[in-house]
Amino acid sequence: MNLVTLLPFIVLIGAMFLMTRSAKKKQQQAAQMRDHMSPGTGVRTIGGMYATVKEIGDDTVTLEVAPGVHAIYAKNSIGAVLEDEEYNRIVHGITETPEDTPVVPDDASSLTEGDAPKLDLGKKDEPKGDDEPKDGKTDGEPGAK
Question: 57-96: b or e for each residue (b if 16 or more CB lie within 10 Å)?
Fold first, then answer.
């Protein structure tokens, strides 16, 4: 056998090795993320539900999905462990803005200072003057340009 015949098989085996290696890395990162969970931590499940961790078992996690409502989930169903600021921003709508952050107005009307003259953007009256066609024909008549 020559090298040209074996080359496609070598490339295929190399690609399979690289794909399984990256998949293993992702699995290890997910397992490490789940190990950093502690009671009181905000999480997002793989289904997109946000909850707070109450208890951690060997293979299960008890989540508080609403005040006083607890549900038991598999550890593998935790999609992300969230930071406290991010969890409060998403779930409770609490945003902590620093004091030196400039406030941006909701509309541009508050950006103008004083009484600036307002532009009239309404439709104007018919123009006055000699706007009549020179040949005396109006649009829609035969022979009009």
Answer: eeeebbbbeeeeeeeebebeebbebbeeeebeeeeeeeee
SS3 112: coil
- What is the distance of C-alpha 41 from the center of its chain? 22
DSSP secondary structure code for residue 91 in this structure: I
Say if residues 71 and 53 touch (Cβ distance below 8 Å). Answer: no
Q: Which residue has the tokens 């803005």?
A: 97
Please state, in angstroms and rounded to a whole number, the distance separating the CA atoms of residues 104 and 123.
Answer: 33
The residue count of the chain comes to: 145
Q: Kindly report, residue by residue over 124-144, the tens digit of the pLDDT.
A: 766 665 555 566 666 666 766
Count CA atoms closer than 13 A to 57's CA, side-chain side.
11
